[in-house]
Amino acid sequence: MEAMTPRLAWRKSTYSSSQGDHCIELAELGKAVGIRDSKDPDGPKLVVGRAAFRALVADLKR
């Protein structure tokens, strides 16, 4: 994924704080979603399938 990172369009939630701290960023990767820490964009990324990501978001909303 490192070779693809510069071309990805990373997005932050509209619910993120105005200071920009404590945020995650997401990037669409076809059949998966990339997740990274906005404070460390060159750091590790988590890649999960779309179904797993939808389940994660649904659980977090509860």
Radius of gyration: 12 Å
Helix content: 10-25%
**DSSP helical segment count:** 1
Q: In total, how many beta strands?
A: 4
Q: Numbering strands along the chain, what is their spatial order in the largest sheet?
A: 1-2-3-4
What would you say this structure looks like, in words?
- The protein has 62 residues and is an alpha+beta fold.
- It has one domain (5-61).
- It contains 1 helix and 4 strands; from the N terminus they run E-E-E-E-H.
- It has one helix spanning 50-61, and strands spanning 11-12, 24-28, 32-37, 46-49.
- It has a 4-stranded antiparallel β-sheet with strand order 1-2-3-4.
- The model has no long low-confidence stretch (mean pLDDT 86).
Short overview:
The protein has 62 residues and is an alpha+beta fold. Helices cover 19% and strands 27% of the residues.
Features:
62 residues; alpha+beta; 4-stranded antiparallel sheet
Summarize the SSE layout with pairings:
Blueprint: E1 11-12, E2 24-28, E3 32-37, E4 46-49, H1 50-61
Antiparallel strand pairs: 1-2, 2-3, 3-4
